[in-house]
Amino acid sequence: MTQGIQRFFKEFRAFAMRGNVLDMAVGIVVGAAFKSIVDSLVNDIISPVIGLFFNMDFSHVVIQVGQVSIGIGSFLNAVINFLIVALSLFVVIKAANKAASFRKKKETPAAPTTRICPYCQSEISIKATRCPHCTSMIDPPAP
Questions:
Q1: Cystine design at 76: which of 6, 53, 58, 91 (Cβ 3.0–4.6 Å)?
Q2: According to the model, what pLDDT value does residue 82 have?
Q3: Is the pLDDT of residue 1 over 70?
Q4: 109-130 residue pLDDT tens
Q5: Would you state the pLDDT for residue 59?
Q6: Residues 41, 47: Cα–Cα separation, whole Å
Q7: How many angstroms separate the CA atoms of 43 and 49, rounded?
Q8: Is 76 exposed, middle or buried (0-12, 13-18, 19+ CB in 10 A)?
């Protein structure tokens, strides 16, 4: 019985310590932190601005069907909140991708420091005039 439990925990530890599981856990934590930033942006900045211009608050709109109240206004508020969050997330991700593309464009690739010997196909220094592997004379590289 105890060997079965030990084997179970050993398999669980191997599963939990795999790279993709740890990457997913980090992604979830970062996503939760990002969600709080987006929620603050929507609740503290965007929604009050919309409230100033349109005076929208549908939370009190209710459809009465017999003795049942259907909170259509709360549903509309949730839909509007979702659209604002989706738009905000789209804008933030688009800006982050644009910033990343600027960073990639500024990075220039490093000049090569090695080349391949045309005789033995070994990797040699770009400045070499003789291959250290096959001792063949090699023409200097073109500038």
A1: 58
A2: 79
A3: no
A4: 778 888 898 889 989 888 888 8
A5: 66
A6: 9
A7: 10
A8: middle
Judge whether 122 and 131 are in contact, CB under 8 Å.
Answer: yes
3-class DSSP assignment, residue 63: strand
Residue with tokens 């982050």: 96
d(CA 33, CA 39): 10
Q: Give the position of tokens 């603050």.
A: 40
**Cβ distance 125 to 113 under 8 Å?**
yes
Rounded distance between C-alpha atoms, residue 86 and residue 77, angstroms: 14
C-alpha 134: how far from its chain's center?
Answer: 48
**Residue 105 predicted with pLDDT over 70:** no
Mean pLDDT of the chain: 79
CA dist 70 to 22, 66, 78, 107, Å?
A: 43, 10, 14, 57
Q: What angle do CA 99, 100, 106 make, to 5 degrees?
A: 95
CA–CA distance, 84 with 142 (Å, rounded to integer) = 57
